[in-house]
Description:
Blueprint: H1 2-16, H2 18-29, H3 32-49, H4 57-81, E1 93-94, H5 102-105, H6 111-117, H7 122-133, H8 138-145, H9 149-166, H10 174-190, H11 193-199, E2 200-209, E3 222-223, H12 225-238, E4 245-251, E5 254-261, E6 264-273, E7 280-286, H13 299-311
Helix pairs in contact: 2-3, 2-4, 3-4, 7-9, 8-9, 10-11
Amino acid sequence: MFERSVTDEATDVFMDHRELLFGLVYNMLGSVADTEDVLQETWLSWSGRGAAGVANPRAYLVRIAVNHALQRRASITRRRETYVGPWLPEPLVADDANADDPALRSESVSMAMLVVLESLTPLERAVFVLNEVFGYAHTEIAEIIDRTPAAVRQLAHRARGHVHARRPLYQAHPRVRREATERFVRAAFGGDIAALMEILAPDVTVWTDGGGKRRPAGLRPVHGRDKAVRLITSYAARRGPQNLDLRYRRVNGDDAAVLFEGDSPYAVMVMDLTPEGDRVSDVYIVTNPDKLTHVHKDEDQAEVEGAEAEAE
């Protein structure tokens, strides 16, 4: 009976902090699958130790999870070395069925920001996520990653400088983001080249992550509006609305488009906007099926939209 009560207490404490741990680790790794693995490793470390005698379970669990995540970065880096084409984070997609999922309510870091964070060292990224996203003080971070406060301040300074140089601090209004996303999708799948040229910024970049498992997928990001238009219209012509079902969903906190082939997810498309909010500066397209396993079709929405289409 005593052993069971200890296990139950450890489980309750872990579950109370799971949302925080998921958000921290996911923002450090950019992969749902790896995050779940790290949380399992964290649980095993925690359950083996137990909650008894731990004065600050939250701090203890965060330290375990962050250090497991730092170790996991090494294997992710090795996988990236042989990855086919551009690598994008695994999208966190919300729908009506999981909109209240705590993991999706965690401090959201956009797809665009996660791409920038990939250019940091593992320690810089850990410090940036802990400090900038979750509000941990430098002294707290020093204890978590076993560094001096001075070393943490230096890591934070480098990380902030690098991130802010590549991604200005601005946040487009959700309504503006939604309108821009819908304009882009209508132009792309409607074959309206003039409208597409208007919505895309001159220096737009299109990233297509198929992982070598979906054809065609570019092996490099495509830069510039003319090349982007050719790529997008060619893609839309091959995989047009007659072959795919379109859903608007929130992905990593931002409005985005999700395409389904039957009941299976085919692609997640996220658009990032210019600081003015009037044009698309980056298009992130994830088609690698391994990164879409957590994306599910909302059948109720499908039935409603199907009925509306028939009525028209």
